[in-house]
């Protein structure tokens, strides 16, 4: 039986580690780091953001997780995220997937999802 995306990403522990590394990559990415670096001074907010990202990603990947955070539209409303910023974030995600040893088919599946969600994030 084929594994669902959630399983191919390492279930909750694998997704949590992936989110940790993606957020760290965002903090070093000159295109988007200004949006993420302030979290370094607010560890509780950083932990909360990572939990929401992990739950969102895990639930969206088919895991037995209840995502209780805001919708993508509500979470990004008023942030004026540009297409370039969106692509920089997506590139960080893809780079970290590869770094974590995630196979090419799974990376492609994540990329399809990322592009499907794009309109809910860019300049809303």
Automatic annotation (TrEMBL):
Binding of heme, residues: 52, 76
Family matches, as Gene3D superfamilies: Globins
GO molecular function, one term: oxygen binding
InterPro entries referenced in this protein's UniProt entry, alphabetically: Globin-like_sf, Globin/Proto, Globin_bac-like_CS, Hemoglobin_trunc
Protein name: Hemoglobin
Keywords: Heme, Iron, Metal-binding, Transport
Pfam short name (any one): Bac_globin
Cofactor: heme
Residues spanning the signal sequence: none
The keyword Metal-binding is annotated on this UniProt entry: yes
């Amino acid at each position: 039986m084929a594994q669902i995306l959630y399983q191919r990403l390492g279930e909750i522990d694998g997704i949590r580690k992936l989110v940790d590394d993606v957020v760290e990559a965002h903090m070093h990415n000159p295109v988007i780091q200004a949006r993420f670096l302030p979290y370094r001074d607010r560890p509780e907010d950083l932990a909360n953001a990572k939990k929401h990202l992990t739950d969102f990603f895990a639930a969206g990947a088919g895991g037995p997780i209840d995502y209780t955070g805001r919708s993508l539209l509500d979470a990004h409303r008023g942030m004026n995220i540009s297409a370039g910023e969106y692509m920089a974030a997506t590139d960080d995600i893809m780079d970290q997937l590869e770094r974590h040893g995630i196979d090419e088919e799974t990376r492609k599946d994540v990329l399809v999802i990322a592009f499907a969600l794009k309109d809910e994030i860019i300049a809303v």
